[in-house]
Amino acid sequence: MNTTTECVESTGVVTELEELSNQPARRRRLLRDSSTAFVAGLAALFMGDRANAADCQNSPCCSLAKCNQCSYSVNKERYTCPSGYNRRTWSCVKGSNRYYCGECAKGSDCWSGPFACSIWFGPDPA
Questions:
Q1: 3-state class of 107 per DSSP?
Q2: What strands, in cross-sheet order, belong to the sheet with 86-94?
Q3: Beta 6-10 vs 86-94: how paired, if at all?
Q4: How many CA atoms lie within 13 Å of 107's alpha carbon, on the beta-carbon side?
Q5: What 3-state class would DSSP assign to 54?
Q6: Is the separation of the CB atoms in 83 and 65 below 8 Å?
Q7: In a 3-state reduction of DSSP, which class is residue 114?
Q8: What is the pLDDT of residues 30-67, one digit of tens each?
Q9: Any bridge partners for residue 100, and if so which?
Q10: Measured between alpha carbons, how far is 92 from 63 in angstroms, rounded to an integer?
Q11: Which site among 16, 32, 71, 93 is 20 to 30 Å from 39 CA-CA?
């Protein structure tokens, strides 16, 4: 099983995923693929026990922290967070598919809580 993790922190109204979704698929794939290897190596160093967390949402490779799904409108990539929490989004690859993982957290990175909710969506071709 090949699993890589990419942490993209997003706190603005327009997120990186929303910006990329308005561009051609080829450009999105190039951007994702170019940064995944480097960030995956860093993530593996810092994930610690989080990588072994029970994922009660049955995501393919996200290791989500919470069972309750974040609310969203239109589609899951536009999930919203409660007041005081920030969006934390990363991707992971299982087989030949890339999935997107997200959580609402008060911490300064993708692995620091407390967490309000979690969500996953995809797949896209890896």
A1: coil
A2: 6-10, 86-94, 97-105, 115-125
A3: antiparallel
A4: 13
A5: coil
A6: no
A7: coil
A8: 445 544 433 443 343 344 344 445 589 999 999 999 99
A9: 91, 121
A10: 10
A11: 71
